[in-house]
Amino acid sequence: MRDLHDVDARHYSTFRLAAKFSTLWEVSQVEELASLEFTENPIVLGEGSNSIFLQDISRPLVRYLANDCQVTFAEDEVFLHVEAGHNWHQLVSVTVANGWWGLENLALIPGSVGAAPVQNIGAYGVELADSCLYVDFFEWESRQVQRLTKTECLFAYRDSIFKQTLAGKGVIVAVGFRLKRAGQPKLSYQGLDHLPADASIDAVFQAVIAVRQSKLPDPQQLANCGSFFKNPVVSASRYFALQSHFPNIPGYKQSDGQVKLAAAWLLDQCGFKGARLGDIGCYEKQPLVLVNHAAGTGEQLTEFVGHLQATVLAKFEVMLEPEVRMYRE
Ligand code: EPU
User: Fold this and answer.
1) Where are the domains of the chain?
2) 10 noted as active-site residue
3) Confidence (pTM)
């Protein structure tokens, strides 16, 4: 276990705002988690690709780094038990190299396996919930690991029990996956529809990587945390009302009849592509991705986010809700 103090938060968040952590514990065994002592439950951090620290944090933080992966074969399926510290894209790459279908559309998403269930990561028509079997969750109160089935995880669009009733209550230590040894490519999303219906798993993987690289900034080159807001979901009647004012407004019908709007489109219509406040801004190719050009601050980000929300609300009467997790004291 590493017990770090007065840590530069910029190394632990891909948004790289200047801040300090008083205490950061890096552990790789459940027994070490169980032995930690604190008065306030720690903040759990993976690779920091969805966490933004707006100011110095005195609450302890913990990273769980165990990264083993166990594979079990069944007739048509492959079962994986992957510890939380495993890098997500590396896992996807290994499954693709072995021809195990299920995760290929989720290539190149930054972050760790343990973070993936928290917001039920999703891209190009697939989400984690589609192949997740269970999540092992260490609870601070009982100091025990409990296994939640996929149903118990209450996965929804960018949401799960880990953001709701279990928020702050413990640490995801492993995730179980069920993958297929022979699969059908999922090509419905715009950007993959040029592939043939019998595209190989590797062709899908490469196409996802290409489309992500063409649209999204690499956090190594330009600090960002991917989509900053969730795509808002509105009732069908609300969508039709919006459509009467804005005939081109994109809307994606959900299974419950509601309609998902494109936050990127709403921001784009307000002219926010490439907009800036100091070093904080909207990415020039995709306004839903907020970026830190270098020396952005927590205050600037808070002000900029408020301005984006207020402008979209005034024009469309839709409130954008952050998808990233923002921490302040
Ligand atoms: N659009 C614009 N202007 C733009 C970009 C997009 O008007 O500059 C409109 C277009 O109508 C486009 C629509 O917005 O069809 C949707 O854009 P895009 O396909 O880029 O996807 P998104 O809804 O902005 C979501 C996820 C991404 C994920 C992509 C692909 C959320 C919050 N974001 O973005 O996830 O990669 O779909 O599946 O659901 C992330 O969560 O960090 C993330 C990057």
Assistant:
1) 2-64, 69-211, 217-327
2) no
3) 0.96
